[in-house]
Amino acid sequence: MDSDDEKEERRSYNWEKGIDKTWENIGEDDSDLRAQERKRKKRSTQKAIQNVRKGMTRYVFVVLDLSKSILDKDMKPSRLTVAVKTVEAFILDYFDQNPLSQMGVIVARSSLAEKITELSGNPSKHISTLTSTSTNVSGEFSLQNSLEVARSTLCYVPAYGSREIIIVSGSLSTCDPGDIFETVELLKKEGIKVHIIGLSAEVYVCRAVTERTSGSYHVALNEPHFRELLLNLSPPPPSSSKTETRLIKMGFPQRRADISPSLCACHQQPKYGGYYCPQCQSKCCELPTDCQVCGLTLISSPHLARSYHHLFPVPYFIEHVPPVAQKTFGRDEAACLSCRVALSQAAVYTCPQCKGNFCTECDDYIHDSLHNCPGCEMQSRHNR
Amino acid sequence: MAWEALRSNRKIEADGALSAPRGLTQDDTSLLVVLLDTNPYIWSQRKQKELEWSSVLEHVFNFMSAYRLLKHENRLAFISVHPGESKLLYPGSTDPTGTDMEDIKNEIVTQLNAHTRNEELLKSNSGWSPMLSGALSLALCYINRIQREEPLIRPRILVLHASPDVSNQYISIMNCIFSAQKKSILIDTCILGSNDSPFLQQASHLTGGIYLKPSQQKALLQYALTCYLPDPFARKFLSLPTLTRVDFRASCFCHKETIDMGFVCSVCLSIYCGITLVCQTCGTRLLQMGTAKKPLVKKALPAAPK
Ligand SMILES: [Zn+2]
Ligand SMILES: [Zn+2]
Ligand SMILES: [Zn+2]
Ligand SMILES: [Zn+2]
Ligand SMILES: [Zn+2]
Ligand SMILES: [Zn+2]
Q: Taking Cα atoms as reference points, which of A63, A193, A77 lies closest to residue A130?
């Protein structure tokens, strides 16, 4: 699809950019980098606070290009290893951040696309299937076939969900059976977004497909950049106005361990324990799932709770560069409120709500992983 | 073991993380963070068969010194779960020379006394509930700091709790549990009150710790020595108490009531016990529930009103 000249030009452009970037990074002071990183994070946190409406229920197909182009050695040890590892990391991160969402995996090789896992909420199954399938690499990549296979499943998912296709491809060409833009029109109609991450150089058709389906298109410069690009797709996206918003009826079954085995509705096999549907009392083995008998969506409350930090984010802490010997909770020591480290040299971060002072480590941990401000938590009657 | 049977598939992530960086070995240095409920109201209302505050403290100190005897490098921290303010009592802001158990004990008792002096006004006020979520957050931040200094240390948390659960702490406690799960931190819990705690049941279940509500509180130390003292490696060879039933029901956002069936907003996942037209958390107008899924998909999607 691309002319050779164009390929050459873009490739050298990307390559140059990659070198430039690393050079700049080395030249910079460590603290500067850190400050930049923090500023970037601040922006994204603020964005998250502004936009509460998110597509919490996502249906995503990940397409991995297993054509010959993936064997290139420009990433260490090879594109294939890097791609598989990064996709695995993405799968784990995706289910961590989108607990109610589902995912399926497609591999594209020999000009065909093969769905290796159906849409489901089980990360370990996707990973094990992907690892065992990725040993077999052959032929060319077909963008249209990949999109069609994903579309054939995605057009049946509930309308309140956000539908996405994420393609990781190292190919510079696509081997399609028909007009790809007809497929793109269908995707557009179904509200399916296509995100593509290229591993070699920009390809016109990829840019066109992503633009028309309002997805994103990026070309990875190097391994860390690729990882960053892919993992950027795991937080829930802002919900588009196209998706329906509705109340979904859900059941919260309790886990029971039985003394004698009974048949489960999902596998028709005798099992000892299981989750009992609160509506029809049939038993299933795994959550989240739809009840096989009455169709009720069954989940456990921890699944829902995993995403609540998106709804109630910790406010961004205000940075003071010189230490302030401020009183925290009546105590006059200038120590970090949560880990008690002395706040003498490093920058101090103050929570705008509880006025507690924190060190850099705690600030990072609180916003990246914990999602609770220890100071606010201790002010008894806060309402959440 | 029933524990194995109780694990949901999502748990695999945490398990994977547990074994991924380094296999469990016998001589790992560990960090134990003890969280003790110091709610004066609860401890003044003890029933006949329940353990008094002073004896609980004695049992806990004995357990802590047993833990220190396991390995010289083992580290300890002690956090009070107190109404209004939880606090890291050991290691304090003072110079951590207290390598002797007697010193540690003195430091904690002195701080506890200072901490609990202005109790009198709280005694009758049951509206002040201890901030378990705050204490857990503190413990996790502290562990995070120690892990930065000593990346190989194996942290775990022991919660000794007597007060009832407070429903509006649900989200914060779950946040703590998920963060602990991600970092492979076990949360062991011991309930010294009269009721089971669904929050702490989930905490232990999801992090792979032990949840225990001793029937004979007089034997608290004995329970602690057999169940909580062994490290995760040794626990593989022991037959430890298991939970046959974990309450995974949710509580609705509107009345904070526990429900086993409810309605969830598709945008923000807020839970309601009945049908609402506008979501109170995210403000989205919600369409009524559809019955079948497929016909809805086939229809052209109208733009949802903002
Ligand atoms: Zn089954
Ligand atoms: Zn059912
Ligand atoms: Zn700190
Ligand atoms: Zn705060
Ligand atoms: Zn309600
Ligand atoms: Zn909502």
A: A63
Distance from C-alpha of B197 to C-alpha of B164, rounded to nearest angstrom:
7
**Is B92 exposed, middle or buried (CB count within 10 Å of its CB: 0-12, 13-18, 19+)?**
middle
Pairing of strands A58-65, A102-109: parallel
Where do we find the tokens 């839970």? B271
Whole-angstrom distance, CA of residue A33 vs CA of residue B159: 39
Instruction: Please state which CATH number belongs to domain A55-231.
Output: 3.40.50.410
pLDDT digits (tens, 9 = 90+) for A13-47: 444 544 444 445 444 444 555 555 665 565 555 55
Give just the sign of the alpha carbon dihedral B199, B227, B86, B46: positive
Q: How far apart are CA A321 and CA A316, in angstroms?
A: 15
Residue B95 confidence (pLDDT) above 60: no
Q: What is the mean pLDDT of residues B157-165?
A: 91
Considering just the CA atoms, what is the radius of gyration of chain B in Å?
Answer: 22
Rounded to whole angstroms, how far apart are CA atoms A84 and A131?
A: 7
A183 close contact with B: CB closer than 8 A: no
Provide the residue ranges of all domains of chain A, joining segments of one domain with +.
Answer: 55-231, 255-308, 313-382
Q: Are A108 and A134 in contact (CB under 8 A)?
A: no
CATH architecture of the domain A313-382 equals 2-Layer Sandwich (3.30)
How confident is the model over A315-324, as a mean pLDDT?
Answer: 73
Predicted pLDDT of residue A34: 58
Q: How confident is the model at residue B79 (pLDDT cuts 50, 70, 90)?
A: very high
Q: Does the fold of domain A313-382 match that of domain A55-231? A: no
pLDDT score recorded for residue A260? 85
Nearest alpha carbon to residue A60 among A311, A236, A273: A236
Least reliable range by pLDDT among A53-57, A267-271, B267-271: A53-57
CA A154 to chain centre: 18
Which of A99, A191, A365 is facing B301, going by the closest CB pair? Answer: A191
Q: What is the mean pLDDT of residues A188-214?
A: 92
Q: Lowest-pLDDT range, A154-168, B2-16, B101-115?
A: B2-16
Dist. CA A184–CA B23, nearest whole Å? 48
User: Which residue of chain A has the CA closest to B303?
Assistant: A242
Judged by CB atoms within 8 Å, which residues 157-216 of B form the interface with A? 168-172, 174-179, 182-183, 202, 206
Rounded CA-CA distance B193/B162 in Å is 4
| Domains, chain B, ordered by start | 28-235 (3.40.50.410), 249-291 (no CATH)
User: Which residue from A326, A319, A314 is spatially nearest to A376, judged by alpha carbons?
Assistant: A314
What is the dihedral angle through the alpha carbons of A36, A37, A38, A43, rounded to the nearest 10 degrees? 90
User: Is the pLDDT at B181 greater than 70, yes or no?
Assistant: yes
For chain A, the maximum distance between any two Cα atoms, rounded to a whole number of angstroms, is 73
Q: Which residues surround ligand 3, an ion (CB under 5 A)?
A: A 336, 339, 359, 362
